[in-house]
Amino acid sequence: MNVIFGLLCLLLAAVKVAEISGHVEFTNVKCESLDKNFSDFEYCYIKAINRSYKYVSLKVNLFKVPVTKIKVNYSVMKRFNGYIPFLYNVTIDACKYFENTNRNPLAQYISGLFLPYSNMAHKCPFNHSLIVEKLPIDHVSNHLTNVLKFPTGDYALYTSWMAYNINRANVNVFIKLS
């Protein structure tokens, strides 16, 4: 009886470990400049180093600097029959957010996905190119499986970047969580 109970506990622990750890991979990234006189992407890609290590890099050059009013709309989408809204669709004033990053936990969570690998984590104005360099999948995986657990599936993070209340660029990142 003790052997069966021990095996049952071991099986339950294995199920819990499998439930906690998930495999996340980048499937696509799309960058679109909507006003090429204001900004344009120099590069935007996923690079696969090997089967398990991929990263995203992008660089957008700003042509009308300094930029003093920035808003970002984040939409988390899940693929069912096409991509539909899932959990979050929020617009934040980036300049106000960077004055006090603790004021908005949701923005802190979403921006935490990429800010450690970017040059955007400072107060306005922005008078330089915006870069996300070598954002590794293991960092994103930690956010989506350990910090706030997402169910398995295909997801997209749609972002719209607005300067002076005009949508200037869209960046969409697609991932698979299994």
TrEMBL record:
Keywords: Signal. Residues 1-18 form the signal peptide. InterPro entries: DUF1091. This is MD-2-related lipid-recognition domain-containing protein. It comes from Drosophila willistoni (Fruit fly). The lineage of its organism: Eukaryota, Metazoa, Ecdysozoa, Arthropoda, Hexapoda.
